[in-house]
Specification:
167 residues; alpha+beta; three-stranded antiparallel sheet; 8 strands; 32% strand; globular
Amino acid sequence: MKVLETDRLILRWLTPDDAAFILELLNEPSWIRYIGDKGVRTLEDAKNYIVTGPMKMYSQAGFGLFMVERKEGNTPIGMCGLIKRDTLDNVDIGFAFLSRYQTQGYGFESASAVLKYGHNQHDLERILAITTLDNHSSSALLEKIGMNYEGTIILDGEDLKLFASEK
């Protein structure tokens, strides 16, 4: 199901048919370094990740991590969306892209659209974002889309930067 459209991108719900893409994305060195190893090593693992993660959140919250595709060729390039974690008081925005599509403005384009979507379509007053202390590119992107750095927090035993956007 299509959720958002920008000049160059379509953001849609993930389905089990996206397993090959998810397998590649979750094993990118930058995913493992900055987000963590999810143990997704097979197509079956990737399907399970989609069903128990994004698809479960769609049914529970009406949002989740969305597939980001280039309109040109319907090429899958990353994920961007909203996540409701038990460990945070507010919904947070998350994104990740295949390395070959980074630094081309896709993160900015999709994250800007998702932030507006969260505030406007889901009436979220406050949206958070977290990054590792050394993920400077994600921190810069969060500031570029208008999120404010609020300091550091400890989440699951890890020091993280916390950003927020108020409606």
